[in-house]
Amino acid sequence: MTRFLSIRSLIPVLALQLGAVASAQNLMAHFRLDEATGPLCNDSSSGGNTGQYIGGVQLAQAGARPGTLNSVLFNGADAGAELPGAPGIAALSSNFTVAAWAKLDDPTGYRVLLGNVNGWAVGSFYSNLRFTTRGIQDYIVPGAPVSTWFHYAVTFDASFLATFYVNGVQVGAVQGAAPPFNPATSWYIGTINGVTEWWNGSVDDVQVYDVALSPGDITALYNTPGSPLGGGLGAPYCGPAAANSTGMGSPLTASGSTSVAANDVTLTASSLPPNQFGFFLTSRTQGFVTNPGGSQGNLCLSGVIGRYVGPGLIQNAGPGGAFSMALDLTRTPSGAVFVSVLQGETRSFQAWYRDLGPGGAPASNFTEGRVLVFQ
């Protein structure tokens, strides 16, 4: 069955992404926790925080929301993820934000969602929300939901004020007086140090930013599960993408400007299998075709589809599993010809890429789609 997304339905999403987020921020870590198999716990940001799962983690559990794909269940006894070094997180001592979808099945005692034994940690204390600068101060407010998914965010600003949010709404704040101590080498998800304070329940879509986000930013994160702030231009659709051989679906983002006159749009496909090639696609019409031509993914375009396959346009994901391309809006492929994007035009984009099937056999896949309304 063909499915279409109306432009009218996109208006609030576009308004949110293009206008409501006020803070200037960098995404320092993003653990989607979508892996189908271990041992890697992948960081899809540029922060370089990828680690490995430890103990009895249960991967590929149902996600917190449809946009988050999978989650990980931590057993409260020996299950976590160790993030050695974690350079994108380790440098943060104030003016940062941690956000995640969480489900706390057993709130007994101290439970850590993300933290470091010598630095700071975010988690719970019984049915309370807890942020701690280890050995200095515990910041605790009531209101940790139990046995249900909730969006949990904590900001820690330059004045050492910790502000807590549940499902996009502020639920408390505690003033501190000092930054944390220097962190130990390894950071962890689901435990403080691989020995104690184990999280008992599920975790999904952990994001860390290098600024204390505004209330509007926190609300935006809650309203767009699985998508980071600064996800760029336009809006995602037809997602989450089908999982590839890394165990994750591949998001597609756009940056620059939707102004036709500026001619400044860059597409980025990420969470791809390393060193595989691919190319971008575009159409004025959205669609949905499951496993076209035996692909492992879904084609989210229909009508006249253009392929960016000319000289210099074929991409390679490289060892980092991502590729980008700056578009020339005056030469947009449309079937066998090139056209110029016009003001007021709506275009949808996607990327096709080579993947590995069962047993390492050659296969293909698609990213999610992204729709842009040009001005």
Describe this structure in words.
- There is one protein chain.
- This protein is mainly beta and 375 residues long.
- It has two domains: 23-223, Jelly Rolls (Sandwich), CATH 2.60.120; 235-373, Sandwich (Immunoglobulin-like), CATH 2.60.40.
- It has helices spanning 7-20, 87-90, 215-223, and strands at 27-31, 40-41, 51-54, 58-62, 70-75, 80-84, 96-104, 110-115, 120-125, 128-133, 137-142, 150-156, 161-166, 169-175, 186-189, 200-209, 235-237, 252-256, 265-269, 277-283, 285-290, 298-302, 306-307, 315-316, 323-327, 332-334, 337-339, 346-356, 362-366, 369-373.
- Strands 1, 4, 5, 7, 12, 13, 14 and 16 form an eight-stranded antiparallel beta sheet that branches. Strands 2-3-6-15-8-9-10-11 form an eight-stranded antiparallel beta sheet, with no helix packed on it.
Specify Rg, calculated over alpha carbons. Answer: 21 Å
How many domains, in number, for the residues? 2
State which percent range the strand residues make up: 35-45%
| Average pLDDT for all residues | 89
What is the name of the CATH class of the largest domain? Answer: Mainly Beta
The residue ranges in which pLDDT falls below 50 over 5 or more consecutive positions are 1-24
**DSSP, total strands:** 30
Which class do the helix and strand fractions yield? mainly beta
Q: So what's the overall shape?
A: globular
First-to-last CA distance: 31 Å
Which CATH-level-2 architecture of the largest domain?
Sandwich
**Biggest sheet overview:** 8 strands, antiparallel
Number of helices: 3
Question: What's the helical proportion of residues?
Answer: under 10%
